[in-house]
Amino acid sequence: MIYLASKSPRRAELLRQIGIEYVVQALDIDESRVATESSVEYVSRMARTKAGVVAEQLDGQQEPYAVLAADTTIVLDGDTIGKPANREQCHSILRQLSGRQHLVLSAVALATPGKVALRLTQNRVSFRSLSASEIESYCATGEPMDKAGAYAIQGRAAIFIEHLEGSYSAVMGLPLYETAELLQDANIAMF
After folding, report:
1. Quick check: is 84 in a domain?
2. Which of left, alpha, beta for 150 (phi over 0: left; psi -120 to 50: alpha)?
3. Using CA atoms, how far apart are residues 108 and 121, in angstroms rounded to an integer?
4. Which residues span the domain enclosing 180?
5. What are the tens digits of pLDDT across the range 90-138?
6. What 3-state DSSP class applies to 189?
7. Which of 172, 154, 72, 56 is nearest to 119 (CA)?
8. Which helix (H) or strand (E) holds 138?
9. Is-contact 119 188, C-beta < 8 A?
């Protein structure tokens, strides 16, 4: 049985895309970044922690299990950019990304009894220049409010993206190539 340690409909959609059957195991953890950790350390820790928390809940079961978890964050000028807390932050983040390239880090972890394996992707996304009215209109849709970097590549913000170097699915929130590697390494069949 595969448990998805996420309430994200995007991650669920991506797993369905590759034929993985799963059960959502929602969790609520503190996702605060430790001041001394790098963006890579942060996104890796979050994916490992999410998988590990659900695995702890499942330990002692008779049946074998696998817990899949992921985390995605945006890095611009060395700073980690999380989810906007309000419309003002949404505007601020999008103004920063406008006309620039940023890094999207996505980590995916797979916990099985006694083990947590991790893969990390680094992807570069270039935004075209955005007008103030475009930023206002996009923030008003509500779409960016629960997204790292205040945008959804699979949503309306797709028109902002001038260039993507890396994995579309990783920017969306679950790097499928790396997910497949983890599942294969754990002898979990796909399709």
Report:
1. yes
2. left
3. 9
4. 2-185
5. 999 999 999 999 999 999 999 999 899 999 999 999 999 999 999 999 9
6. coil
7. 72
8. helix 132-141
9. no
Q: Given the structure tokens 């369905």, which residue do they identify?
A: 16
Least Cα distance to 31 among 70, 68, 3, 76 occurs for 70
Whether residue 65 contacts residue 112, with contact meaning beta carbons closer than 8 Å, is answered with: yes
Q: Where do we find the tokens 């979050």? A: 46
- Three-state SS string across 60-123, please? CCCCCCEEEEEEEEEEECCEEECCCCCHHHHHHHHHHHCCCEEEEEEEEEEEECCEEEEEEEEE
Tokens (6 digits) for 27: 């969790």
Can you give the CATH number for the domain in which 125 is found? 3.90.950.10
Known catalytic residue at 71: yes
H/E segment holding residue 178:
helix 176-185
* pTM more than 0.85: yes
Q: How far apart are CA 91 and CA 147, in angstroms?
A: 13
Catalytic option among 71, 77, 79, 146: 71
Domains in the chain: how many in total? Answer: 1
Is 119 part of a structural domain of the chain? yes
Of 183, 163, 147, the residue nearest 71 (C-alpha): 147
In a domain, 190, yes or no: no
How many other CB atoms are found less than 10 A from the CB of residue 37? Answer: 13
Domain contains 24: yes
pLDDT(191) > 80: no
